[in-house]
Amino acid sequence: MGKRKRSSRSDPSPIVANTLLPQKKHYRQRAHANPFSDHALDYPISPQAMDWSEHFPAFANTGKTPEFADIGCGFGGLLTTLAPLFPDTLMLGLEIRVQVTQYVQDRIAALRMTSASPIPPSTSIATAPYQNVSVVRANAMKFLPNYFPKHSLSALFFLFPDPHFKTRKHKARIISPALLAEYAYILKPGGIVYTITDVRDLHEWMTNHLESFPLFESVSEADLREAGKGPILDAVYNSTEEGKKVERNCGEKWLACFRRKETTRTSK
Q1: Which residues of 82-111 are buried (b: 16+ CB within 10 A; e: fewer)?
Q2: Has 198 been annotated as catalytic?
Q3: Which of 42, 162, 201, 223 is catalytic?
């Protein structure tokens, strides 16, 4: 059999793509930030004051607002995994750390420039990939209702949050009774809260608080997969830097998901 002739041309796009994608080593940042510090943050005075066209220009004038919110999105692994799977769903990451937020912004910009993935035929808006994902630097413990109107989100993600091991630091945990009231406010009835951690104590803390809150009910992984949310659950388990680290170290992951209950008003 004769030798296969080597092509004189090679596709440079993978090299270009790898060159444009940001490198984490250039975005050094501490692993955690104090949510009670006086961070210099810009935030809208209300959801109506938020101009989403700056974040999702391809969806300008459509009236669309974010439906998925990743709280403490880290390096954006969940967002960039889910974005191509749900191209008509706007997704927003919220991250308090400056350099990490900048990394995610640069990563999304690079993916928009380099991605050549075909648009699924079910997409109602002809957009290039990753136009439906963005990030803001924000303190979710203080300003979440400034971004999202009542009952506007269908999914909230809390993936491998800071466990704050010391008892005196538990007030800084992202799941607490006061914050659950805000999450219930912005989550539409039937919307899902996804939590996952490799710390069993934190898993039990989050589960106990969510079970005790009257507007949330536990929903099993099996029921969610049966409802077609398997791709979301797979991304929750495996798409983040923390999740991959736990996998490499053969650690355990503790998943807990809760559905926002429907509420009915009773007439007197």
Answers
A1: bbbebbebbbbbbbbbeebbbbbbbbbebb
A2: no
A3: 162
